[in-house]
Amino acid sequence: MTLTGTYVPSTSDWVREQVEAYEASDGREASTLPGTDYPIVVVTSVGAKSGNLRKNPVMRVERDGAYLAVASKGGAPENPEWYHNFVAHPEVELQDGAEKHTYRVRELAGEEREDWWQHAVATWPTYASYAEKTDRLIPLFLLERA
Q1: Per-residue pLDDT tens over the stretch 124-142
Q2: Fewer CB within a 10 Å sphere, N or C end of the chain?
Q3: Could you tell me if 56 and 143 are in contact, meaning their C-beta atoms sit under 8 angstroms apart?
Q4: Residue 81 burial by Cβ neighbours in a 10 Å radius (0-12, 13-18, 19+)
Q5: CATH of 13-144, one of 1.20.140.10, 2.30.110.10, 3.40.50.300, 2.30.42.10
């Protein structure tokens, strides 16, 4: 299923510009977190309140065709806005390079969460420092092909 709705670009310049460049080049440009060599994917979700389509670059944490979205917000005390979108509308589109597919989203808990957390930290070690900055348990969402 393709998500429907009006796309409303981010008010954050760097997010909006990265998404535009990534999509325009099928992921050949703007494919890493700015200032790093860590790869990203672009996730389109439906706004929890607005119903508008929102697009965010998310660190590429993949295993066996499933992706992980880590709601770290850099270790901030609150969840990123897209967290609420995932909870309200657990279906997203994910673009990895030129590949774009629909995924079902579910929040992880228990041993499954711990297993994926270890994979996330092994993929991008900075997640460990984000966890140290906050008192909240950073939510993890598994994205599996619909």
Answers
A1: 999 999 999 999 999 999 9
A2: N
A3: no
A4: middle
A5: 2.30.110.10
pLDDT tens column, 45-101: 999 999 999 999 999 999 999 999 999 999 999 999 999 999 999 999 999 999 999
Look up residue 39 and give its DSSP letter. B
- In the chain, where are the structural domains located? 13-144
Sheet with 66-70: strands ordered across: 53-59, 40-46, 91-96, 99-107, 140-145, 66-70, 62-63
Who's near 63: CB < 8 A, 6+ residues apart? 116, 119
Residue 89's pLDDT is 97
Q: Catalogue the long-range contacts made by 29-36 (C-beta closer than 8 Å, 24 or more residues apart).
A: 30/57, 31/97, 33/57, 33/59
Whole-model pTM above 0.90?
yes
Terminal CA-CA length for the chain: 8
Tokens of 116: 């994926």
Looking only at the bridges linking them, the beta strands covering 40-46 and 53-59 are antiparallel
CB 119 within 8 A of CB 125: no
